[in-house]
Fold this sequence. Notes:
Blueprint: E1 6-10, E2 15-19, E3 21-22, H1 27-36, H2 38-42, E4 44-52, H3 54-57, E5 60-67, E6 72-78, H4 85-98, H5 100-111, H6 113-117, E7 125-130, H7 135-143, E8 147-156, E9 160-169, H8 173-189, H9 193-208, E10 215-218, E11 223-227, E12 229-234, E13 242-246, E14 260-262, E15 274-278, H10 281-297
Parallel strand pairs: 6-7, 7-8
Antiparallel strand pairs: 1-2, 3-8, 4-5, 5-6, 8-9, 10-11, 11-12, 12-13, 13-15, 14-15
Amino acid sequence: MSGLKLFRTDTTNGGMTEVVPRLAEVEADVQGFVEAYMETLLGVRFLASEYGTGPVHGGRIDSLGLDENGSPVIVEYKRGVDAGVINQALYYLAWLMDHRAEFEYLVRDRLGATAASQVLWSSPRLICIAGDFTRYDVHAVREHRRSIDLVRYRLFGSDLLGLETVASVSGGIQVARRARRQAVARAAAGAEGALMAELASAVDEVLLGLGDGVNRVERKQYRAYQRLRNFACLCPPQRSKLLVYLKVNPKDVDLVPGFTRDVSGLGHHGTGDLEVQLRTQRDVERAQDLFRASYAAA
């Protein structure tokens, strides 16, 4: 991977041994590994492998899935560098958008009726996993109005897989911005008042500013901040506080009553086991280390 070296401690010789990165022998090895652990690796629930698109379209989608926010996901794999991977994925996405009912039937069959009723068609995603990408690939994804993630893989030894996001572009940015303006306007007009609207805007700015490739996904119950996987979910303002859910292990945090709470095993909107309660701008400042930890984990 770019500039990354991995070493294993060698207790026998009292030194360090480099674990040399390598590509898979065949593309199917990468696909099989990712599909087996797709939710852990990508935050995507696996639906189908080598999904046929019918005799007219004449293709087979490597992997179909549904992400944490209900967005349809197409995953395409290449063993090494392949200039056609993005166009191929876009070709399949066009088919998927024309066959929404078929996809929802697949979701219903694999994940149940509730998941099928909550499919988010406003932000379908493409994830391309390959040995590497060219600068032309990186430029190309920035020209498309789709959510596309380019992910470089490497195998280390016999049991380690590395994934590195090379480029990540969010589709439907104008929709997200419009939804944000509407949400802020509702907050200002509601009982929570201008303070909560200002607080929500500050949190949004901090989360988007954590690094490149942060995608924002609007759902009715929450706004997700995504870096391949969700790392934060911001719920609509309450009368006197904002709730943010983070992908941080609550056991690794010194919980403070009224500020942080372990919600693992408790039902709530969004994803993440650590609840952060924000009432003032100072709370936002206190939470920034937690925001960064969740972003890094994603």
